[in-house]
Each structure stands twice: as C-alpha cells, then as structure tokens.
Specification:
Layout lengths: L3 H25 L3 H30 L1 H6 L6 H70 L1
Helix pairs in contact: 1-4, 2-4
C-alpha cells in the first residue's frame, strides 16, 4: 500500500539532496566559527593574490616611467600607499566575508533541520506501516486459528 504522505516526503528529501543537500552537509561538518574562519582565510588568500596581480599589472604598465625615474622616486611613500590600499581592500573583503558566510552557515543549518524533520516523519510513517502490517498478520493468524 502506497502512502501519499510518505511519497511526498521522500520526494521532497530527494529534491533537497539533489540541489542543496551536498553543500549543506559540507557546511554542517564545521562549527560556525570554524567555517567562517576557513572561508575568511580563503578570502584573504584570494584578495592577496588578486591584489598582487593588479599591482604587477600596474607596475608593468608604468614600467617605462619607473625605470626613467628610479633614482628619484620615494619608495617608502609608494610602499606605504600600496600597503594602505591593501589593508583597506582586505578589511572590506573580510567584513563582507564574515557577514556572508555567517548567513550561509545559518541558512544551511535551517535547511538541514527541515531535512532531518522530514526524515523523522518518513521514519514515523514507516513505523506506522510496520505496526499496521504486524496487526494484519496477527489478525490473519487469529482468523486461521
């Protein structure tokens, strides 16, 4: 006997597993602070790499000027500007990353909570089916006796 409630719940679980389930399970492995810390470290590495690439491109673009004025440039002031911009950009990205990954972790845990509730309902339906089946078998045995 097919129970439409159980089929509907199993379908919803399968859809969840196919779309968000794998990502949510990866996120659920971590505590909130650990997940955010890992993602912030990834953000720092990405921003640093991107910033170095952009600085390299700017240096390549202005290379003729830099070579012509190599003796007259104030390298300390130039380094301080580059470092200052790096710190500002990095701080902005870190604030954004903390907010974003906090939100993603929270949403992931909410979806997992709903998923586990659906699994509990499926288990309850299965137990009810098993109980009904056992009652039918007992009734058949009594009828045959």
């Amino acid at each position: 006997m097919i129970h439409s409630k159980k089929v509907r719940l199993m379908t919803q679980c399968a859809i969840y597993q196919k779309h968000e389930g794998a990502d949510d399970l990866k996120v659920a492995k971590f505590f909130r602070a650990d997940y955010i810390r890992l993602e912030v470290v990834k953000t720092i590495l990405g921003v640093t790499l991107g910033y170095l690439i952009i600085i390299g491109m700017i240096i390549m673009y202005h290379l003729e000027f830099l070579i012509a004025n190599a003796l007259y440039l104030n390298y300390q002031m130039l380094g301080m500007k580059i470092l200052g911009y790096y710190i500002l950009i990095l701080a902005a990205y870190i604030v954004f990353a903390v907010g974003r990954y906090s939100y993603l972790h929270m949403k992931s845990h909410k979806r997992l909570g709903r998923y586990y509730k659906m699994l509990g309902r499926i288990r309850k339906c299965s137990e009810e089916e098993e109980y009904a089946r056992e009652l039918e078998e007992e009734n058949r045995e009594e009828m045959q006796s």
